[in-house]
């Protein structure tokens, strides 16, 4: 079957309005997969079926017949794993539960990259989870690199409307030839639309999927002010519901080039999320980028209505108020 046709049910699932309200991943059941339109071929893989360990020896442990993966950080090492193959476009997802208590300096990453193949011209799509001191919330950072464009970081950071250490939540990346969408619990939080001005800086080479935990003391929490404190180790990040649904590199089938477009309801939900929970945006950072990167003039990225909420540093004007969790951990982002 052609890869483009394989992706169509996934695109329908994540780009059309969904009936359930957002809720922790652990409360989803198989029937929810069917309701969302996911085909049987999109079933989550066990570790042995789709992944391989990168580093960390005994700091990676398998549970539940290989359906759950625990990766940990201690004084010896971090740990991580990667998909066995590389993919050109697709839908990639994991349910993740982050370490609780004091986690300053800890970085948990769920991302796509081809840096092992293209050392100087690599592409990358990132979810990075940045730990914090006790009593302060984890933050989520997304980033996009294309063709080694690391000098032009496209970072955005957000708070969350739930505690990511209390339950599993679903984080996903949809990557097509013309756009990239990041999701949290089936809700889009960021869209990157390919423009002619981006050129090769739009990721366009096959990538593998990675998950890692490591010591980011030099930058992850308050610019490096707070470090990892190993008296709280091991720091354990839990992964399950690992979904790889894309075109394997080297496939003879047509490319995964199905167009993606969000529904009006999803676009409204994304706008509400960004207005309430986005704490930094590179498109609004005039210190790093006196002249905005070309795509920042696109509607929905550097839009005037969003820009007024940010300082010239790119930081939100009212960070504490913007991303504080609602009582009860709920959200009104129904799609």
UniProtKB/TrEMBL annotation:
SUPFAM superfamilies: Concanavalin A-like lectins/glucanases
EC number(s) stated in the UniProt entry for this protein: 2.4.1.207
Main localisation: secreted
Listed name of the protein: Xyloglucan endotransglucosylase/hydrolase
Record flagged with keyword Signal: yes
The entry's keywords: Apoplast, Cell wall, Cell wall biogenesis/degradation, Disulfide bond, Glycosidase, Hydrolase, Secreted, Signal, Transferase
GO BP terms in the entry: cell wall biogenesis; cell wall organization; xyloglucan metabolic process
Organism: Leersia perrieri
Subcellular location: Secreted, Cell wall; Secreted, Extracellular space, Apoplast
CC annotations in GO: apoplast
UniProt record similarity statement: Belongs to the glycosyl hydrolase 16 family.
Function: Catalyzes xyloglucan endohydrolysis (XEH) and/or endotransglycosylation (XET). Cleaves and religates xyloglucan polymers, an essential constituent of the primary cell wall, and thereby participates in cell wall construction of growing tissues.
Gene3D superfamilies, A to Z: 2.60.120.200
Signal peptide residues on this chain, from the entry's feature table: 1-29
CDD domains given in the database record: GH16_XET
Domain GH16: 21-239
Post-translational modification, as annotated: Contains at least one intrachain disulfide bond essential for its enzymatic activity.
Pfam families reported for this sequence: Glyco_hydro_16 (PF00722), XET_C (PF06955)
EC category name: transferase
């Amino acid at each position: 079957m052609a890869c483009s046709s394989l992706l169509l049910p996934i695109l329908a699932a994540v780009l059309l309005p969904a009936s359930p309200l957002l809720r922790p991943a652990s409360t989803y059941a198989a029937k929810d997969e069917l309701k969302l339109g996911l085909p049987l071929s999109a079933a989550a893989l066990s570790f042995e079926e789709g992944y391989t360990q990168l580093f960390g020896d005994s700091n990676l442990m398998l549970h539940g017949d290989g359906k759950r993966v625990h990766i940990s950080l201690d004084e010896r090492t971090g740990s991580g794993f990667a998909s066995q193959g590389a993919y050109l476009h697709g839908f990639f997802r994991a349910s993740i539960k982050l370490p609780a208590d004091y986690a300053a300096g800890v970085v948990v990453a769920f991302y796509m990259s081809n840096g092992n193949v293209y050392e100087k011209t690599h592409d990358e799509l990132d979810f990075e989870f940045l730990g914090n001191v006790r009593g302060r919330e984890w933050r989520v950072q997304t980033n996009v690199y294309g063709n080694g464009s690391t000098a032009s970081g496209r970072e955005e950071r957000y708070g969350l409307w739930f505690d990511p250490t209390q339950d599993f939540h679903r984080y996903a990346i949809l990557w097509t030839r013309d756009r990239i969408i990041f999701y949290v619990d089936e809700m889009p939080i960021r869209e990157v639309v390919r423009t002619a001005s981006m050129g090769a800086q739009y990721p366009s080479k096959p990538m593998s999927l990675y998950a890692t935990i490591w010591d980011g003391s030099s930058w992850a929490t308050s610019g490096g002010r707070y470090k990892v404190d190993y008296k709280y180790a091991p720091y354990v990040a839990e992964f399950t519901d690992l979904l790889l649904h894309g075109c394997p590199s080297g496939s003879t089938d047509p490319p995964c080039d199905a167009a993606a477009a969000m529904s009006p309801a999803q676009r409204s939900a994304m706008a509400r999320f960004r207005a309430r929970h986005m704490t930094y945006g590179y498109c609004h950072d005039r210190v790093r980028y006196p002249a905005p990167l070309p795509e920042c003039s696109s509607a929905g990225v550097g839009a005037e209505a969003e820009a007024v909420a940010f300082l010239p540093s790119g930081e939100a004007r009212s960070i504490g108020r913007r991303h504080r969790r609602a009582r009860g951990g709920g959200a009104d982002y129904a799609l």
